[in-house]
Amino acid sequence: MADLSPLWLTIQLAGTTTFFLLLLGTPLAWWLANTRSKARPVIEALTALPIVLPPTVIGFYFLILLSPTSTIGRFWVDITGETLTFSFTGLVIASMFYSLPFMVQPLQTAFQTVGRAPMEAAASLRASPLNAFFTVAVPMAKRGFLTAAVLSFTHTIGEFGVVLMVGGNIPGETKVISIAIYEHVETLRYAEAHQLAGGLMIFSFIVLMAVYALNRRAAVHVG
Amino acid sequence: MSVKSLKLRARLPFADHTIEFNETISLSGITALFGPSGSGKSTLLRIIAGFENRGNLRLTYNDEIWSDTNAGIFCAPHKRPVGTVFQDDRLFSHLNVAGNLAFAEKRSPMVKNPITVDHVVKSLDLLTLLNKCPSTLSGGEKQRVALGRTLLTQPELLLLDEPLSALDIRRKAELLPFLEKIPREFGVPAIFVSHAIDEVARLADEVILLSPDGYVSTRGPIPEIFDTQEMHDFTGKFEAGSFLQATVTAQDTTFQITSLDFEGEVLRMPMVASLNIGDRIRLRIRARDVAVGTSRPEDISIRNAIAATISEIKTENRTAFAEIVFAVGSQSLRARITRQAVAELGLEVGQEAFALIKSVSFDRRVMISALG
């Protein structure tokens, strides 16, 4: 039986990344969906960058950005005594950038579909903009939230290049499932590789199927 | 309650023209902003609601400044005591009808004698809809819910942005009586935007007519404004007509006919069940729905034939048509017929003739005060 700790670490990483991405991605997606600012295409391009870049490129720059010799890396060492590179925290930061488009793009589309009309109606019913956001825009965009969260979660589970560059291969800290599979294959332990790889495939399939099924049922209700 | 007033000065550049508006609207009953598309009437309503704040604006409500682009003052839409009913219903699809009403009620300010959910549900006939999803409602039902939801915000002013224009004729006819009674029943004045003359004639007390170039061409109370040249220019001869006052004398449920006394003559129209015998009402009769005969016709389906004196004949030289004005008691009735008919019947001013009215449409009850 393969060591299952990489699986738990992966789920922890994907969960933490998705949680913080929701906090960061929601206001960003709302801004992108509503702004008339000239900066919008710039921000949109930056957000989409992780889709086109090889993960090793992202990993390479994050390795430099987070290393103790950089400003951010040194600041982190000063306040926590730990390095960001080759740590779980560093992995979360890099993963957030890596999965950013998978959070922002579905949310932006969902917010654009909601549009200004219901927000004006809410204002006319005396809801403040923030209140209207939580009581009208968020419920109306709930399918967008579901899609964004699931895509970010599963996309983070599948990452390899970024982790390898930023996190290395430290058991219990940065050794996630994709790294563990790679290591098993390299050392010709195919049985363990099968257990992890097959398990990951089945897990991803079930999650995606659940999302599509939920989305279809929601469509019937929402009309 | 004293009548409040809204004062709006706006200069708004558009692609091909500039909207110029500088009017004070005293808020009682229904004021119509009437004009063709492109005249900026919906934009003006959005400015009052606070959804638009550009160009050069100054909007005051009594002594409160809501928008002043020069002074940089802007009161956010949700802080203004106005409620908008939009052209599209804009009900929240994630809530059922009761949830939509509760959304408004929960956020309404404390007022004396608030409009209650019970009152709204009863008055707008929403009881059977409460547990339904907005997507399952008809267009007219959706607008009734939207209207009720807006009333529950306890608005001091209702803004109605073409609430009927997305509906077919039947749904429109269903919704009209509700729109008509709301201001009086709930004591909330309304500003109503429309490009349909029949809606304006039926609902409004005062009309502000906007020109296609975005300025105010004329304003005045109904029915007087329909006699102005500006209104004729806008509506064209096709829609020209007369407003008449009559008294309800009988309701015939067998044939579904309401009988009226009009200057001693009998008029009949499709039954309006809400009327009571003795009610004084206003009718609108389009000139094109009136034919002229020199003797009282017997074997004809038109039931309304009124003996009257021709007081004026206006021929339109460049068209086939002429307008005949009949004097009936103290009121006048217009007919639009061909010039050829005038010549062949030998119609002349002062002659006794018969006005054959093809269609009478009930316009509204006449308020006692309006009778003087």
Key words describing this protein structure:
heterodimer; A: 223 residues; mainly alpha; globular; disordered C terminus; B: 372 residues; alpha+beta; five-stranded antiparallel sheet; 21 strands
Decide which structural class fits the backbone of chain B: alpha+beta
End-to-end Cα distance of chain B, whole Å, is: 21 Å
Radius of gyration of chain A: 20 Å
Shape of chain A: globular
Largest sheet of chain B: 6 strands, mixed
The coarse silhouette of chain B is globular
* Quaternary form: heterodimer
> How much of the sequence of chain B is in beta strands?
35-45%
The percentage helix of chain B is: 10-25%
Return the structural class of chain A.
Answer: mainly alpha
* SSE order of chain B, one letter for each helix or strand: EEEHEEEEHHHEHEHEEHEEEEEEEEHEEH
Span between N and C termini of chain A?
Answer: 48 Å
* Uncertain stretches of chain B: 367-372
> How many strand units of chain B?
21
Number of helices of chain B: 9
Describe the fold and architecture.
- The complex is a heterodimer of chains A (223) and B (372).
- Chain A is built from 11 helices and no strands.
- With 223 residues, chain A is mostly helical.
- In chain A, α3 packs across α5, α5 runs antiparallel to α8 and α6 crosses α7.
- Chain A is globular and about 65 Å long.
- In chain B, a hairpin with a 2-residue loop joins β18 and β19.
- Chain B is built from 9 helices and 21 strands.
- Helix content of chain B is 22%, strand content 37%.
- With 372 residues, chain B is an alpha+beta fold.
- Classes of the chains: A mainly alpha (223), B alpha+beta (372).
- The interface between A and B is medium-sized, with 22 and 27 residues.
